[in-house]
Design goal:
The chain is built from twelve helices and ten strands. The protein is of the alpha/beta class. It has one domain: NADP-dependent oxidoreductase domain (TIM Barrel, Alpha-Beta Barrel), CATH 3.20.20. The strands form two sheets. Strands 3-4-5-6-7-8-9-10 form an eight-stranded parallel beta barrel, surrounded by six helices. Strands 1-2 form a two-stranded antiparallel ribbon. Helix 4 links the parallel strand 5 and strand 6. Bound molecules: NADP nicotinamide-adenine-dinucleotide phosphate.
Amino acid sequence: MDIQEKYTASEERYDNAENLYARCGRSGVLLPRVSLGFWHNFGGVDPYERSRAITHYAFDHGITHFDLANNYGPPYGSAETTFGRLMDDDFRPYRDELFISTKAGYDMWPGPYGDHGSRKYLIASLDQSLRRMHLDYVDLFYSHRYDPDTPIEETLQAMVDIVRAGKALYLGISNWPLQPLKKAVKYLQEQHAPLLIYQGRLNMLHRKPIEEGILEFCREQGIGFIAYSPLAQGLLTDRYLEGIPADSRMAKDHFLHPYSRTPKLLDYLRELQAKGETRQHTIAQEALAWILEQEGVTSVLVGASSVAQLADNLSVVSRA
Ligand SMILES: NC(=O)c1ccc[n+]([C@@H]2O[C@H](COP(=O)([O-])OP(=O)(O)OC[C@H]3O[C@@H](n4cnc5c(N)ncnc54)[C@H](OP(=O)(O)O)[C@@H]3O)[C@@H](O)[C@H]2O)c1
């Protein structure tokens, strides 16, 4: 699409609503069962027009939830900057149809106030995120990780105050262990800013949220659960069956190391492929369907480096 061409969202974007949306815990919020993450493929190093095409496809097919964090890029902050540009170019008229999240908790800027869980860091970080994203508020703000060195009340009260200040509508927690999560749920309930959702890594190769009882706890408490890296960063797809493509995350990025492409994994993938064939599922669809079948999972938060990948992933909700 020419960069000057005005984007108009597809009129059919909610036609699959019956299959696409799920209630987030016991809240009033419906989220798409397939949401789009901006960790990779939306940074300053990525072609803007490709990022743009992926978001158009997403929104045109009812994916209303985009997930960001302060340090997504690279460089840090640049995925939010890309999002801000997308808002200006395309999505401003649709702001109220979008559910946008961001996070703070990992390293973002140098010095003692750009990392972890202090009030100072969380509030300054969200202010920066809003400026980069050209938004007045986000729909959802997450603590990105638990910081055992900051009093839990300091982190949580900063989050409550963010909601009170109108900078976020809802709160989320990501990567916290079960015990502090339990404390957080109680604290936030008492402050009338209840936890909306937990974001955890869950896929067929990494089942800790199930094994550690986090998914069960969320389900019991009426808190939504969104599974990140549902395709294990691409391992649970056909991407690496025949080798390591030059344009893949494994070839380009230190987050996915070639040592994870083991003979055992390849055997597992071939089994998954054979199983998928009987249901006319790709490997990716098999992997996503497995997560979506777990009771209490609201959404899978996929990444995609092309429209074709996103289309493959999204079709799991119409073909599960
Ligand atoms: N809270 C946290 O701590 C945390 C941590 C990690 C991620 N997240 C969130 O979760 C989102 C998703 O994470 P992720 O990118 O690791 O997710 P993922 O869906 O497991 O992996 C995405 C990668 O898999 C490949 N892929 C996706 N669909 C494919 C398909 N149909 N066929 C073949 N290959 C396919 C692509 O790799 P190529 O690039 O090689 O094409 C793509 O970049 C992030 O953007 C972020 O929002 C949160």
